[in-house]
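Need tokens for this chain, all 451 residues.
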Amino acid sequence: MNTVDTISAIATGIGGAIAVVRIAGPEALAVGCRVWSGRVTPGPGHARKMLLGALVTAGSAGEPVLLVYMPGPNSYTGDDVVELHCHGGARAAKRAWDCTLAAGCRAAEPGEFTFRAFLNGKLDLTQAEAVCDLINAHSDTALHLAERQLAGALSRQIGAVRRELVDLLAECESRLDFPEEELDWRSPEECSIRLQEMRANLQRLCDGGRSGRILRDGVRVVLAGKPNAGKSSLLNLLLGQDRAIVTDIPGTTRDTLEEQVVLRNIPVRLTDTAGIRETVDPIEKFGVDRSRQSLEQAQIVFWLLDAADADPQQELAELTRQVGRMSRVIAVWNKIDLVPERELPGAGVPTVRISVTAGRNIAALLDAFEELVWQGRHDEEPEVAVNARQQHLLENAVALLPEAVRELERGCWELAGVQLRAVIDELGAVTGEQADPDILENIFSRFCIGK
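Here are the structure tokens for all 451 residues:
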């Protein structure tokens, strides 16, 4: 990606009532004037105003289009930006975009508008990543986290630590340059205490990485068990709609069925599977094989058991065979409304008793699910939650600080300075003040085109 070309892309999803074509770069206004005409000429005198005109196309009277000009540096990218707002739909948006390409634009690459915003100092790297998180958020909590990071919550915390480390590094270097001077230096003990406090602050940010991954990426939950245990009924209940076919005939579900849902503010990829049993039916056998593949990929398994079965111990047999290969399992005895007084055998894993048809104890199931996800280590809604890239860099910084503390306590200012400089570099890589071009390309390639 470069910042010299004038680029354009369709910035909205296809199929809505309105489509937006975004143009950014040094020739944005010129390109806008080539493809659009109206009673008012776009320019600085009409900046940030919606102007009504028409798209200039050969052999056509021109589609009504709104144009807005946002001069840099006060735009999303920091460049001159022009947006064309036309009728929605694939053909109308494509025609408007084609006009911008014919007028001199280059097609924007994924994330290129936000990449320019980063290079032009409109966003740091953590804020740019928050833009992607904002687009991909699947829960209110993930959305709030992305909004706070976009507002600079993480940047401010890292920036405060980094600035203090720079001050401390300057003090170490001044001790080397002016050893005979009586300057107002902090004692080694003071520096050591402050470094340990900074390490604790960075460690706290690292600890938010697991929560961040769960809230951003969600959890893969698989509904498994023998045929007719109530897996599809539970899927429909958790989704709040009849997504899976439910009958009294065992083996109705022949294939896996996946849906996205939010349970207790946790994004969940919920997978309904074919009932696991021995079968000679080739189609059902194929479905059972897929069920076992889903179990291998699951992060959490809800194993449905029929509480009304004539032999509850036999219900547990397949679970017992599978449990060693599954990391986290909840045994779910279903249909307890049919046998309310029945004693049910233990499964050796977290267990709940529910009735899907009566809607009983579903909250208890969700409580067990939430406990298994967080394992007692979760704030209701953390202020910030770092992603995997940020966590890796922060862990590197945390690992370097103890050696810096030891060198400071020994009065070895030069060696302490080496360690402090390495920590400063790691934190600079988090915010993008020091970032490898390959890393930047990898980050922005995950964005959608037009953002």
